[in-house]
Specification:
The complex is a heterodimer. Chain A is mainly α. Chain A has helices at 4-25, 29-45, 53-73, 83-87, 94-104, 108-119, 124-131, 135-153. Chain A contains eight helices and no strands. Chain B has eleven helices and five strands; from the N terminus they run ααααβββααβαβαααα. In chain B, 35% of the residues are buried. The chains are: A mainly alpha, B alpha+beta. At the A-B interface, helix 1, helix 2, helix 5, helix 6 and helix 8 of A face helix 1, helix 2 and helix 7 of B.
């Protein structure tokens, strides 16, 4: 079991990342609190060591995404609150908020890959390893997500990763 | 898109209040114990949750009541997870359907579809059919989602039977629900009879309970010059419990 110092260290390194994941995935602040408690409790209770910092970060990403999925499953009657309420004072200019709203309107699985690719800078291959999915699945998700975002926002698509099918 | 997304998300961070709340919660939950005792306690907690206790209480706690009135009249009790945990009827036709229904633990949407299918199969949709659905819940935030889910299910069921039948779907207050329950009828029928009594004092709840809502509204319309309501009524949303205030 990890101690509070380790929890604090993990908070400094990963809390903002988890908060951003929650912003794109979840509907209200109570769910964000639930996810944080779930993720950090799992971290505290996890006994096995991490191979590397990258391994640790990937673990946090996977656990946070799964925690968001669990919360979404039980959120049958919860209402969606506007982005401004979910982020409190952390509001961005209108065009950026539009983009975030467009991302939040995507299917949950697309939201994660958009965030991991465009913000965290992971390649499709890396995302596939983190989420334990096939590479082609991630390529497909990224392509579809970009298509949907482009349609909604009427802007350019970033064609960074194109599907590599054999 | 990448620059904009990065710029937007850069502004998001984990708040101090969130950190305090999280740390307080995990300190409380993750007390130091020997590994084996912790595992045993965790297993015991999981068993307790799975076999009864908190989950059972949450699962079996009524969250909303959905009354479906086609004449048969039935009531579905729904939990916070959108699952049917109770089914009852207000009349003999409803009792027959309820006896054969297997909708416990089904989703609300599924349950409504199956009950409407059963009503069609048993020939309960006459020439002047009407589907009246009322919802009563303590959680005002849940009303919109509930109404949406119900409307979709009813519309899909009507479409599948090629039925051009109007539907009324709306929220009622707890008071209206209680008053209807005392009269052993659905809130929709109770409200229809209440409207009739306002224009025809000879009408009684007991006397009208065996009539369909369409028939009751037709009678109301007959008594009210120049007003037509009920038949072919369009779908509308509103808290009809407020009409009694």
């Amino acid at each position: 079991m990890r101690n509070e110092n380790e929890a604090n260290r993990a908070w400094l390194l990963y809390a903002d990342m988890i908060r951003r994941l929650c912003t794109v995935q979840l509907k209200n602040y109570a769910d964000v609190e639930d996810v944080f408690q779930d993720v950090f409790l799992k971290y505290i209770l996890r006994d096995g060591p991490f191979i590397s910092d990258a391994h640790e970060k990937a673990w946090f990403i996977r656990v946070a995404i799964n925690a968001c999925k669990d919360v979404q499953k039980s959120a049958f009657f919860r209402r969606t609150i506007p982005l401004e309420e979910l982020c409190g004072e952390q509001t961005a200019p209108e065009d950026e908020r539009e983009l975030i709203a467009a991302v939040r309107a995507l299917n949950p699985k697309y939201r994660s890959v958009i965030y991991l690719h465009y913000y965290e800078g992971y390649s499709a291959v890396e995302i596939a390893k983190i989420l334990k999915k096939k590479e082609n699945t991630i390529y497909t998700w990224l392509a579809r997500a970009r298509q949907l975002l482009s349609k909604r926002l009427g802007g350019e698509q970033d064609g960074k990763e194109t599907a590599k099918r054999t | 898109m990448e620059k904009k997304l990065r710029s937007a998300l850069d502004k998001i961070y984990a708040e101090d209040a969130l950190k305090e709340k999280t740390m307080r919660a995990i300190r409380h939950k993750a007390r130091k114990k020997p590994v084996i005792a912790r595992l045993a306690a965790a297993c015991a907690m999981i068993c307790l949750l799975l076999m009864g206790g908190i989950f059972s209480r949450l699962y079996t706690n009524p969250y909303a009541y959905v009354d479906l009135d086609v004449n048969p009249s039935i009531e579905l009790t729904v939990n916070r997870y959108g699952r049917v945990i109770g089914l009852s009827s207000y009349n003999a036709e409803g009792a027959e359907l309820v006896a054969d229904a297997h909708v416990r633990n089904a989703s609300l949407s599924d349950a409504i579809s199956r009950m409407l299918d059963a009503m069609f199969i048993n020939g309960y949709f006459g020439r002047d059919g009407l589907v009246s659905v009322t919802v009563q819940t303590q959680d005002a935030n849940a009303e919109v989602n509930l109404l949406g889910a119900i409307e979709s299910s009813v519309a899909a069921a009507l479409l599948s039977h090629h039925a051009n039948v109007p539907m009324d779907i709306y929220v009622v207050s707890q008071q209206t629900k209680s008053e209807a329950h005392e009269k052993n009828m659905s809130p929709a029928k109770y409200l229809a009879i209440t409207e009739l009594k306002a224009v025809d004092p000879t009408a009684t709840y007991e006397g009208c309970s065996g009539h369909s809502i369409t028939e009751i509204r037709r009678r109301t319309s007959d008594h009210t010059s120049g007003h037509h309501s009920g038949e072919g009524a369009n779908r509308h949303h509103g808290n009809h419990g407020g009409r009694h205030e």
